[in-house]
Amino acid sequence: MAPPELSVGAQSAISKVPLIFQALHKLHSNAYCAQTNPSGIINAGIASNTTIQSLLLERLNAIKENIIASDLEYGTPYGSQQLRDEIADIFNRHFAPNSPVSSEDILVTNGCTSAIEMLSFAICNPGDHILIPAPCYLALENDMGSRAQAVATPVQLPLEDAMEVQQIEHFERAVSEIKAEGKEAKMLFLMSPHNPLGASYPRKVLQAFLRFANEHNLYVVMDEIYALSVFDQSDAVAPFESILSWSDLDTYIDPAQVLVLHGLSKDFGLNGFRMGWVVSPWNKSILNVLRCYSPFGYSPAYTDRLIAKFLANREYIDSILQISQANLSSNYQLVVKFLDQHAIRYIPCTAGHFVWLQLPVSACTKVLVAQGKISAEEATDVQWTRESEMAVWTDMVDKYRVYVPPGQSFFAADHGWFRLTFSISQDTLKLALDRLLQTFMP
After folding, report:
1. Mean pLDDT confidence for 55-74
2. Distance between CA 127 and CA 291 in Å, rounded?
3. Most buried one in 98, 266, 417, 433, CB count within 10 A?
């Protein structure tokens, strides 16, 4: 006798496994290591800042925090007072808030993935839509829909509109289409600095987004996870401005509709510690709801205490952030030199761990000829397609042993785009670029 059928939600979740997860098994089972596995797959896809890894290990090991009796207890699901005090201090020193952020404005989660899911549960009924500018962070569909059953709705944009006010027209159409289906949009999810484009939204664009959200009664979740990874602060680019710093926020939207995300993973290079936080200075009701959800996923008491001590060393934190930004800038310049040398199209970036690039069409020509799908004579008419992008990506991982996720996993409107992570050691980065070159060179 067969076991009872799983829930509709479970069946839906397993049918929508993100593309990135399909490659992680290959990556982790054959990971590159210069000493022990030089022919392994180089990870130039996951956004993890390993340029400061040795400094982090040195500092964390120097804390020498022994396990104590309270670590054996449950701890505070939404973050201890000490930890939230230190997080508030990070915001007050580095985000220029219009009003000081307090520990009571903060809820700690075991990573921003959990924070996004909790907010999706709190704000959306099953089937409600969450609007996201695309290309966008590739795991959002899973984070918002797998259990919360909200519908992540990437709004595909021409790249030339991605940092311009005119993109609001695309969002107006999306809302109209959702309403025509008898559905409802409940949230606008924005990342600034942007993932995968690596730039901060200009203020005028954020103003337009806030007006749009106010008109359609949407919550706005500002994911500022790369806020302290801005490496180009020249006058020529749009600066990062935390939404917390706006003195005139209520001119554009009721501040109670706005929430902010941040965490350890990106700016502090601590992906594995699984700790993020929601900041809600203007809406304590939603924080109370999130506290009800906190017991389903919170950080161990020992981790809570260790990170509180880590963040408390202000001189170290300020120093590691400066070093990180300098390393990111140096690596980005190395990548830009390579891309320019080989006439590879890319979107200039100012923040984050990656660059958005489009490989030459010779990459798909090369793989299609090798697979016998076209002849050498037919190669002149090849164009990027969804299928050829997947073929190049598969070859990239299996044959050339470098992992760089494809644009379709970011819901990109056009094909042939990839997100290259450069926040790795320069020696490994140079090797990754050499392997990438093999995908399109004769």
Report:
1. 92
2. 24
3. 266
